Amino acid sequence: MFAWKFYLVTFGCKVNQYETQSLREAWHALGGAECNAPAEADVVCVNSCAITAKGERDARNAVFRLRREAPHARLILTGCAARLFADYKPRPGAIWAAPDLLVPQEEKSRLLDGPWADLDGDRAPRPSADAATADATATALQAFPPFQISAFKRARPVLKVQDGCAHRCTYCIVPLTRGKPRSRPVDEIVAEARRLLQAGHAEIMVSGINLGQYGRDAQTGDFWSLLRALDAALAPEFAGTARLRISSLEPGQLDQQGLDALLACRMLCPHLHISLQHGSQRVLKRMGRGHYTPAMLENAVAALTRQWPVMGLGADIIAGFPGETEEDLRQLLELIERLPMSYAHVFPYSRRPGTAADRFDGQIAHSLKLERAARLREAVARKQQTFLAAQLKLPRMLVAADNPQAFAEPALAAPAGADEASMPNAAGKPKKNSIKGVNEYYAVCAIRLPAQGKKTGAGAGLLPARPVALAEKGLVVELIESE
């Protein structure tokens, strides 16, 4: 096969990041070489997201921009926005660009065989965003998509264990784009986690589209049995030098079985990210999420903090859902005040055609959605500062660095008193005297590089550190010297 170069662009969730890495490895194995600029590529692939209208718009803009930057490359659009792209109608006279190959999410794994197949035509058939058609297509692909990875471009890899969702939240388009739930076999998950840890990664993010639906499609147990199996298989070798983190859970999963599993796992970070969405039960019911209550989360956090006296707690929150009142917003703000929140991702509600909420009465003006989102972010920011101030008092933490190799390269360490703006890296370019990472509580850490010649014992793995100062949205930490 001729030598060819490819360029990958990824939007959206951690599962998309995982699938891009799988494509990267597959294309390398087929003789491709990844390049750093689209203009150098023979193939450009956009792995898109459609969770919000902005995500879909970003995909369209990327296609337009990349067509200009790489006019001779084979341009592929895949991911959740691909199906929506097919039905998008630009304004009359608008400047427009289309991909050479349109691969909807449910067919993305076919790209593992290479970027050159036309998938039934010079341009793939224009799939419909009709819900019945999407369901029929997704149902025809019942097996777990055959993505797998042995490395990751980032220091903290994603481990995909589940795909799809059958819940049908009234605002969410994911069931139309990713289909019904499918669960990965436990033995494949354990084997991949072991490969990643043996490759030197110190932290793995266990991820899926809806972890609460893991195991419902097969006799694989539920998510909690999977978590216990992962910990049992990996902890004897890796506990203390590597760890697991869970990407996202719902409050309803935090029952006694879930709490017992969380507290029993030796490799698990004391951190939860919760798909909360709102603090008003009335709004949750309109969202199609009446199967849990905010009180469930409060009770679970109270139980966990008895064993995890320090923990990170993040959440996804939607502002300005149709029919949301000031009273609903007040309930959400009060919930944020009561919880030991360390961060949150706040999104103004985004209308998605094909979802029930798009047809709801009580749609809220865009300006008001933005104003409410700003108020929520201010409340979360105050909680985050309280959390970080408490973190500053901890005597010790373990940090997973974004670039742990920097600590094993003495030539890159900053001499005492050096001007950080003038310090060169291996390529002779300016570099700062700190490396970004996260601690076990998911606080962002700026790790000070040690003075040249100073022993730290640092290398690959989890780095013992002490906090020394507050940063704008995190901590400044210094490594604990080896004895």
UniProtKB/TrEMBL annotation:
The keyword Signal does not apply. PROSITE patterns: MTTASE_N (PS51449), MTTASE_RADICAL (PS01278), RADICAL_SAM (PS51918). InterPro entries: Elp3/MiaA/NifB-like_rSAM, Methylthiotransferase, Methylthiotransferase_CS, Methylthiotransferase_N, Methylthiotransferase_N_sf, rSAM, rSAM_horseshoe, rSAM_sf. One of its GO terms (molecular function) is metal ion binding. Its cofactor is [4Fe-4S] cluster. This is MiaB/RimO family radical SAM methylthiotransferase. SMART domains: Elp3. The keyword Iron-sulfur applies. Its EC number is 2.8.4.-. Residues 4-107 form the MTTase N-terminal domain. It comes from the Bacteria. It comes from Desulfovibrio desulfuricans.
